Amino acid sequence: MWAFGRTAGGRVSPFAAERRLTGGTRLDEYRAVTSAFEGIATAVVDGGTLAYREQGEGEPVVFVHGGLSDLRTWEQQLPAIGSRYRAIAYSRRYARPNEDIEPGADDQMLPHVADLNAFVHAIEAAPAHLVGNSWGAFIC
């Protein structure tokens, strides 16, 4: 549930400003988010489930998003990189559409590094080229 533009876990809703500007409803927001994640695959990693999308064949290129985003950050890059490589974008632990972080929990970097390593092996994409932005680049 959205409250003042934040998720229940306290993260800023990426749709809150748009909803205010366009007069959209929470139902419109739900539909937009739901359709954005149709057709995703999942991998179980260290007790969590990570959503991902991939396109193409060849050497794996794994895209790691920053702190306030998810796998959709890379949707424009997947077709371009996927024309020559196996392009893979995943949502890190606690990012949409994965399970949210528990209120008050500490979100440390090392579990995300371990998740990336386990994820690449779980989907049989090791070794892989890694591309990250913002906090995702530190995880790489």
Outline of this structure?
The protein is an alpha/beta fold and 140 residues long. The chain has helices at residues 16-22, 26-36, 77-82, 109-122, 135-139, and strands at residues 41-45, 48-55, 60-64, 86-90, 129-132.
What can you see in these coordinates?
The chain is of the alpha/beta class and 140 residues long. Helix content is 31%, strand content 19%. It has 2 domains: 1-36, no CATH class; 39-139, Alpha/Beta hydrolase fold, catalytic domain (Rossmann fold). The protein has 5 helices and 5 strands, in the order ααβββαβαβα. It has a 5-stranded mixed sheet with strand order 1-2-4-3-5. It is globular, with a radius of gyration of 15 Å. Mean pLDDT is 84; it is low at 1-9 and 12-21.
Layout of strands and helices, then pairs:
Blueprint: H1 16-22, H2 26-36, E1 41-45, E2 48-55, E3 60-64, H3 77-82, E4 86-90, H4 109-122, E5 129-132, H5 135-139
Parallel strand pairs: 3-4, 3-5
Antiparallel strand pairs: 1-2, 2-4
Q: What is the domain tally? A: 2
Looking at CATH, which topology of the largest domain would you report? Rossmann fold
**What shape does the CA trace take?**
globular
| Count of DSSP H/I helices | 5
**Would you tell me the overall average pLDDT?**
84
Order of helices and strands: HHEEEHEHEH
Q: Assign a percent range to the helix content.
A: 25-40%
In terms of DSSP E residues, the strand content is 15-25%
Number of strands: 5
Terminal residue distance: 32 Å
Low-confidence stretches: 1-9, 12-21
CATH class of the largest domain: Alpha Beta
Structural class: alpha/beta
Task: Please tell me how large the radius of gyration is.
Answer: 15 Å
